[in-house]
Amino acid sequence: MSDHQLRLYNSLGSRIEDFVPESNPSGMYSCGPTVYAFPHLGNMRPYVFADTVRRALRWKRINVHHVINITDVGHAVADTNTGEDKMEAAAARERRSVQDIAEFYTAAFFNDINALNILPADEYPRASAYVPEMIEFAAELQERGVTYQIPSGLYFDTAKDPNYGALAHMDTEGQLEAARVEQVAGRRHKTDFALWRAEEPGRRRVMRWDSPWGCGAPGWHLECSVMSIALLGRHFDIHTGGVDHRELHHVNEIAQSQAYLCDGLPWVRFWLHNEFLQLGAEKMAKSAGGAPRLADLVEAGYHPLAFRLFLLGAHYRSQLDFTTAAIDAAQATLRRLLARIQPLRPLPAADTLADARRLQTDPAAASALDQIDAAISADLNTPKILAVLQDALRDPAITPAGLRATVAAADALLGLSLATLDPDDLDKGRAKEDLPAEDRQAIERLVADRTQARNDKDWARADQLRTELDDRGVQITDTPQGPTWHLR
Ligand SMILES: [Zn+2]
Predict the structure, then answer these.
(1) Residue 337 above 50 pLDDT?
(2) Cα of 222 to ligand 1 centre, how many Å?
């Protein structure tokens, strides 16, 4: 059987296209987190998606150099232009330095990346380390006559770009209205965006750099253009992000980069975007009333890879609703997969189609591998790969060696740690009935106190009680009927 051609949905042009790399390694850039708060579950979907792209490229034996930026400066609260920086606002709120905030939330991001078994990027550049390059880039644009300066900073003149907004699927004006973009005195068009944000008179920024346009900080869009070109070259193959970026952030990245390069070529060939994860009205355990985080899921007794499986159970271009029923189902599916796969261990390594084919020993496995290759090649159809895996595990015609190759191949693309994850990690637990009565009563009291603290919105006290319960090996799950607990 022959290999299937990898085909990906390119937002630029809105069609599925053959993906053939133009360089070796192929360059790939993913817009990274602004490290001013804990990432919530929805924030993690773009990184699981980018990881799926990475695994698909590896499967096809395409070398890749992957860059994910860390935004530690320049992201304004109002999203595009002037006003307070998200980092500085967080520092003021938490009474910590901007550096502390950046380090703390960068570490939180890496924790989640690791827990979700996301392959590490080759580089994680920090925006704050590239400000001189950003100033040079903006100065070059000024030289080319596509900018103008007003008191609030240096702006990109979007009217100078006849193709401005080609990537966006929505009407840009409408998008701007929705994005609560503030009025800026002197700005010529609503779509014009800041390359450099000058300090407002009398308001000294914490993070500030000297520039030809006054002391201030770079605009948010600028960093991605500058760091990706610095690390991947003037043109590269793939740029990824969530659909929200497709409407404005990526539109602006393209406008300024193509004005800077000025060579008539598209800056990046493939623009790939994942749809939203809707967190909706679902009430998960929430540490401080915000959107649920991966840590909240874990606290409620779910494995991080159950969340990964939940995401991969839908196509990346489908909107997905996070519900308790859905994460329960994912955890149950993962448990069944591990129970079925554990007796097959050790599993071979089969990160590429070629490796998997070398291991395959029977027609049933050959057919399964071909279906897996067809599925990943057809714009990363992960739900189909899960279905092929489950069918193979039920197929009486497949040999043990063929099944091992099929499981290893599916997992190379899905990243669910099927070769190593211990099923007991999902259901750790001694029976609480085995506890001495007094220990059990003490735990019940702590659980009740924690519930009271949460009802009182005394989050510090609730967290402290959770730590105490944790020390006793107790795992709490908050349900609509109240908390339940079990022993790890
Ligand atoms: Zn970006």
Answers:
(1) yes
(2) 8
The label of the residue with tokens 């159950």 reads 306
Close Cβ partners of 225 (under 8 Å, ≥ 6 residues apart): 137, 253, 256, 257, 260
Cβ–Cβ < 8 Å for 71, 352: no
Decide: helix, strand or coil at residue 291: coil
Instruction: For residue 231, report the distance from its CA to the centre of ligand 1, in Å.
Output: 14
The token pair that represents 247 in the structure block: 């409407």
Whats the size of the chain, residue-wise?
Answer: 488
pTM: 0.85
Give the pLDDT confidence of 186-239 residue by residue, as tens digits. 899 989 999 999 988 888 888 899 999 999 999 989 999 999 999 999 999 999
- Best CA proximity match to 130, nearest among 229, 259, 239, 36: 229
The 10s digit of each residue's pLDDT in 347-358 is 999 999 999 999
* Amino acid sitting at position 477: T
When computed from its CA atoms, the radius of gyration of the chain, rounded to whole angstroms, is: 25
What's the 387 CA to ligand 1 centre distance in angstroms? Answer: 34
Q: How far is the CA of 250 from the centre of ligand 1 (A)?
A: 7
449 CA to middle of ligand 1, Å? 44
